[in-house]
Every structure is written in structure tokens, then in C-alpha cells.
């Protein structure tokens, strides 16, 4: 009973602290190839080095040693030339033990949005009424150190202290002939800020419950209207594993909004993972749906292959309609 009270208290506290806040600038599933293959249903699953991003408390359930090198790219909508639109490019490195993880993540978010030059007339434009687009590029390099603490036999609370170097570049150009990729070339003044993520995970038999507060300490890069704030994000998840731990099903829900170029979103995800008896081959699949406005559903899948014991090649892909997101990612994972 005491352990159950601790679980409920931790989850309730996290909800009270952050549920009133919005979220912005980055999607929750930007990193983690296994997570992307499961449609982003990973908050209560995170048991490898990407727990540093997904839920720091998951480290306690991981292997003695875990190292991951990864990269991915995603865009929404999938149709080239659509406005508004965004795409991301990521790469990361993380190394973890059950009580400590060190991580480096690099994220570039490029955005394009339509504006009217009428709104820019005060800046001296004479082509009033013609279409223009605003380009923005956000580049973040995040260095993190993750530590955790067990509270009894069923609950772990952990945090990732982050140092983030970021730049924001913006520009306004004519809509005609300006692709989204043009945002990749924009540069800004570098800034360095500390930040903090906090996670909790409870394990009750084969059931796991997870809560993640990303950017518990908000940070802002850039100034004025061009500035980008990494606002608090709250995500919760539940996972059910078989007794052999060869199969897992999970579900996640965003409890805050993410402000993207294509509009606010709050996603619900569900997915699963299954391994062969020798753990040399694993497969996963998932779906994700936006619960604000247009649903923009997407489906994901992934495969893991172990060419030798303890070494895995992970790949994942996401696809949907022309209005939904698409992407792919790969990782090299070493564990023992």
C-alpha cells in the first residue's frame, strides 16, 4: 500500500506542476529509433540509453551497459512544396549504466510559414498583397547527464541535467521559388542555457507506468518574435510486457500541446515490440494520432537485427497521408 501511495503521489505531483503549460519547438519523438518504430509509445518502455531523452527513470530497468549511435530525419507534411511545413534532422550518442547516463543530441528544426507582405509594409515593402514566407531554423546541441533514485521496490525517479547550445535563424522571402530546405542555411547567434528533464517510472509486475517532464526548466533562444522557447512538455505512458519480456505493448499520451509550424498538436500513440526467442531479431509497429484539429494519423514500423550477440542494428520508418509526417531513422546499439 505504501508503494502504491508513492506511485500515485509522484504522478499527481507531476501533473499538478506542468499540465497548465503549453509545449513548443520540438516533438517528443525526435530521438530513439526503437521509440519511433513503436509510433512514439515509449515513455513507460524506455530501458536503453535513449531513456536519457524519453524517460530518465527507465535507466534502472536497463542492461548493465548500453551505448547507442543514431540518426534520423522527419518532415510534415510529406508533400514537397507545402506551406506551412517543417522537417528535422537529428543525430545522437548516448551511453548508459543503470544509475548513470551521458548523452549528446543534435537537432535541427527547419520551418516555413506563409505570411502576407501587407503585414510587413511597415518595414518598407512596396509589393503589398503579394505572398511571402517566413523561414526559421532552430539548431540545438544538447549535452546531458542522467541520474536516478529508487524509492522502494517499485518506483524510480530520475532527472537529466542538460546544457543546451542553440541558434535561431530567420528570414522572409518571396513564396515563389523558396523551398523549405532553404531554412537549413539560416544561421543565428549561439546561446548556451541549462535545462532539466524529470521522469518517473513505476513497475507493478508486468505493468509499467511512466511520466516524463521535458524542459522542466524552460529556456529561450533568440529575441522577440523570432525567439523560440523550449516550453515544458508532459507525457505519460503505460506498458504491458509478457513474463518472458519478449513482447511489449504500450500507449503514450501528450498532456501538453506542442507548437509546430503546422499548428498545435497533442498526440496519442500506441505500439508494440516483439523479439524472437534468441533475441537476434525484433520487430515493432505503432500508430500516432493528433488530438487537436486535423488528426494527421501516421503509422510506424521498425526492425532490429543482431549480427552478433549484444550488437544491434535498429531501423525505423514512419509514413502517413500527404498531410501527415514521414521519416526514417537508424541506430547502432551495443548492450550487455
Describe this structure in words.
With 336 residues, the chain is mainly beta. It is built from three helices and 19 strands. The longest helix is centred in the first third of the chain and has 17 residues.
Brief summary of the model shown:
With 336 residues, the chain is mainly β. The chain has helices spanning 2-18, 33-37, 51-54, and strands spanning 23-24, 66-76, 85-97, 100-116, 131-151, 155-174, 191-204, 207-214, 219-221, 228-230, 233-241, 247-254, 258-260, 263-265, 267-275, 281-290, 298-308, 311-320, 326-335.
Strand order of the largest sheet: 2-3-4-5-6-7-8-11-12-15-16-17-18-19
The level-1 CATH class? Mainly Beta
What count of structural domains?
1
Radius of gyration: 20 Å
Architecture, according to CATH? Beta Barrel
Overall 3D form = globular
Q: What is the overall number of helices?
A: 3
Spans where pLDDT lies below 50 across 5 or more residues: 1-24, 118-129
Please state the average pLDDT score.
88
Q: Could you list some keywords that capture this structure?
A:
single chain; Porin; 336 residues; disordered N terminus; 14-stranded antiparallel β-barrel; 8% helix; mainly beta; 3 helices; three-stranded mixed beta sheet; 19 strands
Give the topology, please.
Blueprint: H1 2-18, E1 23-24, H2 33-37, H3 51-54, E2 66-76, E3 85-97, E4 100-116, E5 131-151, E6 155-174, E7 191-204, E8 207-214, E9 219-221, E10 228-230, E11 233-241, E12 247-254, E13 258-260, E14 263-265, E15 267-275, E16 281-290, E17 298-308, E18 311-320, E19 326-335
Parallel strand pairs: 1-13
Antiparallel strand pairs: 2-3, 2-19, 3-4, 4-5, 5-6, 6-7, 7-8, 8-11, 9-10, 11-12, 12-15, 13-14, 15-16, 16-17, 17-18, 18-19
Amino acid at each position: 500500500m505504501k508503494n502504491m501511495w508513492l506511485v500515485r503521489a509522484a504522478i499527481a505531483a507531476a501533473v499538478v506542476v506542468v499540465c497548465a503549460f503549453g509545449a513548443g519547438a520540438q516533438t517528443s519523438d525526435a530521438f530513439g529509433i526503437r521509440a519511433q518504430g513503436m509510433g512514439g509509445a515509449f515513455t513507460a518502455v524506455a530501458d536503453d540509453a535513449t531513456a536519457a531523452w524519453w524517460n530518465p527513470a527507465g535507466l534502472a530497468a536497463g542492461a548493465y551497459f548500453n551505448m547507442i549511435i543514431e540518426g534520423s530525419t522527419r518532415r510534415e507534411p510529406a508533400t514537397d512544396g507545402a506551406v506551412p511545413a517543417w522537417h528535422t534532422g537529428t543525430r545522437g550518442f548516448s551511453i548508459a549504466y543503470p544509475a548513470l547516463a551521458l548523452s549528446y543530441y543534435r537537432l535541427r528544426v527547419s520551418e516555413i510559414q506563409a505570411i502576407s507582405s501587407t503585414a510587413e509594409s511597415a518595414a518598407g515593402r512596396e509589393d503589398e498583397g503579394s505572398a511571402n514566407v517566413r523561414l526559421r531554423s532552430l539548431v540545438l546541441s544538447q549535452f546531458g547527464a542522467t541520474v536516478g533514485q529508487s524509492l522502494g521496490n517499485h518506483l524510480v525517479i530520475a532527472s537529466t541535467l542538460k546544457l543546451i547550445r542553440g541558434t535561431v535563424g530567420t528570414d522572409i522571402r518571396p513564396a515563389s521559388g523558396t523551398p523549405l530546405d532553404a531554412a537549413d542555411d539560416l544561421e543565428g547567434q549561439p546561446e548556451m542555457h541549462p535545462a532539466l528533464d524529470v521522469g518517473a517510472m513505476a513497475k507493478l509486475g508486468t505493468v509499467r507506468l511512466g511520466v516524463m517532464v521535458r524542459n522542466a526548466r524552460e529556456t529561450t533562444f533568440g529575441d522577440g518574435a523570432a525567439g523560440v522557447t523550449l516550453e515544458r512538455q508532459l507525457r505519460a505512458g503505460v506498458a504491458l510486457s509478457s513474463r518472458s519480456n519478449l513482447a511489449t505493448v504500450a500507449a503514450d499520451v501528450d498532456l501538453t500541446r506542442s507548437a509546430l509550424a503546422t499548428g498545435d498538436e497533442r498526440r496519442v500513440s500506441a505500439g508494440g515490440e516483439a523479439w524472437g526467442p534468441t533475441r537476434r531479431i525484433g520487430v515493432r509497429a505503432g500508430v500516432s494520432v493528433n488530438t487537436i484539429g486535423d488528426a494527421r494519423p501516421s503509422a510506424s514500423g521498425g526492425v532490429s537485427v543482431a549480427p552478433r550477440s549484444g550488437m544491434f542494428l535498429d531501423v525505423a520508418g514512419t509514413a502517413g497521408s500527404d498531410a501527415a509526417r514521414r521519416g526514417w531513422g537508424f541506430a547502432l546499439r551495443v548492450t550487455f
